[in-house]
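Chain A, query sequence.
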Amino acid sequence: MRLLLIIILCMIAELTSAQDTYKGLKDYYNDYFPIGVAVSPQALKGPEATLIEKEFASMTPENAMKMGPIHPEENRYYWDDADAIVAFAQQHNIKLRGHALCWHEQTPSWIFTDAKGDTVSKEVLLRRLKDHITTVVSRYKGKIYAWDVVNEAVADDPSKLLRNSPWYKICGEDFISKAFEYAHAADPDAKLFYNDYNTERPEKRERVYFLLKQLKKSNVPIDGVGLQAHWSIFEPNEQELRTALDKFSSLGLQVQITELDISIYPWEKFQRERRQGETDVFTSELETKQMEQYKMVFSIFREYKQVITGVTFWNISDKHTWLDYYPVKGRKNYPLLFDQNLKRKKAYGEVVKF
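Chain A, predicted structure.
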């Protein structure tokens, strides 16, 4: 009986020791910047929730705080999913980023039209934008430390500065500065970001830089720029990444990597059907290339720790990512550091090897 008790006590001691020495991404990068992850309410229980607690110091709601899901009708908000994510973050002492207050997609159609279905005036649209931002930001004041205020306003067309979205068609460029002003008024302590993709590609980088420089010159209350970092094993290269970080930080802005994943496929802009014979096998060659890309970008991130104030992965594991649906629906991608069984991939080892 005494021997059995000793064995049990030894097992408990070993288990406690293992728990005490467990290091997640958040621990490896504790002296650099918070490592975050985009989450859905469904991930807040079970094995995914455990993984979030162990590995990450920050969270971003993937969809729950976008205008369409949280404000489906003019006089109705849907808070349940967003509230659940906020509660989980507070319970586990995890920082929280808000995403996204103004975007051309996942925006409810009512915001641009009146009761007759006609397009509203600039004054009406800005008032609606102010009401939305004020309501959402005020609800989570003190619980969300940073917001993606305006998302993807720069055009993909290199001959234009801003995307020809309904926001731009109705308000011109004023909707951008106004969105930041409304967010700052609702929570003066929150850090406010402009967020976009392909920010490392030279032609878009220059246009995003021009927009940010204009905002700074006009004393718009913007604190940082979010580089979405939907990258691949093919891009960006080291020089492109360094140039982007140098360029944006030269404006005195914080830089955050807001939506990181590294696809095994080349970037494609338009959604398409899967081609006949198109496979989605995660070969050892692809695994090696992904490891090398993750190693390179995190090595640079660490060099820029005085500039970068957060790195967030877009989804938790390869089990489910937005790249399983875009640009090719049904084609499996393997873009993250955890596999479909929530186990660490080899790329994880390269990220924490320093």
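The mean pLDDT is 94. The longest strand covers residues 254-263.
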